[in-house]
Amino acid sequence: MMLYSSTALWSILPDLDLPPATMRVLARLQSVQQPGGLIVESQVDMAGALGLSQVTVSRSMRTLRERNLVIGPRGAKRLHPLIAGYASSEDYERAAIEAVRRDDIPDITVPLYVQPPPRVGHAPPLSAVS
Question: Does residue 103 have a pLDDT over 80?
């Protein structure tokens, strides 16, 4: 089933600084979600489908929860309403308005770095100290 969703996620994705495995998990969540963002696939099944370890999927889910891209109590995973897919644009609009009105829907969190974290392979050279 094709779902309608906002492009908001894609505009902030570079700022979320998600590791590659977490990006893969997020893409998987987007592809298996039910209308409204409900995720019923287990982390074990997700790990198998993505060829990742369960530990990696668990860490990725923790990161997605910390960024509020995945919300809800443990066992009731749901994509944030502003990035979830819906059966129609009208359903999305209603959910977005409701998400803004409700106090219990957290904002998507973008990490704030005073200095960007070093990229793999781009660390400054080390020098010996005598």
Answer: no
**Angle of helix 54-66 versus helix 43-50 axis, rounded to 10:** 110
pLDDT for the residue 116? 64
| Structural domain containing residue 88 | 8-101
Q: How many domains does the chain have?
A: 1
How far is 72 from 113, CA to CA, in rounded Å?
26
Alpha-carbon gap, residue 68 to 106, rounded angstroms: 7
Identify whether 112 is part of a domain: no
Residue 57 lies in a domain: yes
* DSSP-H helix ranges across 17-101: 20-32, 43-50, 54-66, 89-101
pTM of this structure: 0.80
